[in-house]
Amino acid sequence: MKQKIFATIYLTLFILSIMLPTILANENEDLLVIRVEPSYRTIKAGETAIYSIKVESLTRFPQIVMLEVNGLPENSIGIFTPEKGRTPFKSKLTIITTIQTPAGAYEITIIAVSGDKEEEAKTALIVNPPETTITSTITTSTSITRTLYVNVQTDKTSYNQNETVKISGSVQDQFRNPLESIEVSIQVVNPLGNIVHSALTKTNSLGIYFDNFTIGELGYSIFTPGTYTVFVTASKEGYLDGYAHASFIIGETNIPSINFVSVNITDLNGEIKSEFTQGEALIIWVTVENSGATLEKAYVWVEIDDPNTTPLGVYFNIGDLENGKIKTIGFSFTISANAYKGVYVAKAFVSNDLISKGGKFLASTDAVFIVN
Helices H, strands E: what count in the chain? Predict the structure, then answer.
């Protein structure tokens, strides 16, 4: 009898050992883990602090995650490389200060956003007074155009009927400072070009906005299988509007569904960097993913804008983007010897042909770097 009881208990524990990870995964389906090292950095005003970041999911299912930073001191800029990724992934936060950055101790909060969920980790930055020999790292000799930069993502790249599409993104100024109460217009277009969902929302105190809708929900148009595109526009008086779009699939599709995985900027040795000097060469690495039909002769573009939003060069690569594949392409660029100092933007696009021949942009993103 005791043997039977022992056998029953053993079998029950064995079954629970198998089921427990699944139960916990279902309960924590949307949760993330974000870690940052070190716990603090000490620098002088005008210097740079670098932090290592690791983002993981509590389940075996990967999530698309966007990174944000809050609590930066005045006259500084924070740059993630990369700013977006699919779990698990590593990133690097570079905080660049100037001699005008006030001395003090700052609590830096790093936020990971996926769908309508946020997780955060904290670190610290201690800024001491500058040395007299330090020069400003973010200065320009001309006025800077006030521009909004917006990004958008969905929590997954493919959905089925009755699932909820979770949309999120952020709005920043030209120095990558998050902007609160920015009006964001959202439109979702189906494979036939018809609007099936629209919303008007505003960013929160961290510069982040959220939206969601259920596929096939009563009151919405019928959702046919195919590739859908999310278009967002950020607007604020006194700023140039910001635009972005992303795509996702419902069911199966016979057209491409393109999204950027990351944009990294490195030196010629492949080291990821956020700061460069006049006359230095760099490489912009863009990684794109196609979860729809193969896109033959895809055009992957990179445009580099100076601190006054003046395009310095436009480059493109032509090649197939196959279904279910991820592709990384590098574009080299040399900063001129008399280039303006300040924040530069590398804009990346994917199109199905030359725009002059009727091609359309299918995805877009951007990254920034500093010239000092």
Answer: 1, 25
pLDDT category, 22, cuts 50, 70, 90? very low
CA distance 38 to 334: 33
Instruction: Extract the tokens encoding 280.
Output: 């230095």
The answer to whether domain 32-128 and domain 257-372 are alike in fold is: no
Which pLDDT does position 136 carry in this prediction? 47
pTM: 0.74
Rounded to the nearest 10 degrees, how much is the dihedral formed by the CA atoms of 25, 26, 30, 31? -40
In the numeric block, the tokens 């912009």 are attached to 284
CATH number corresponding to 32-128: 2.60.40.10
Q: 139-255 belongs to which CATH class? A: mainly beta
Distance CA 368, CA 197 (A): 31
Q: Which two tokens stand for residue 289?
A: 């993913």
Q: Nearest Cα to 157, choosing from 246, 66, 85?
A: 246
Domain parsing of the chain, residue ranges: 32-128, 139-255, 257-372
173: Cβ contacts below 8 Å, ≥ 6 apart: 146, 147, 148, 149, 179, 239
Comparing C-alpha atoms, which of 50, 119, 109 is closest to residue 87?
119
Which has more confidence, 176 or 232?
232
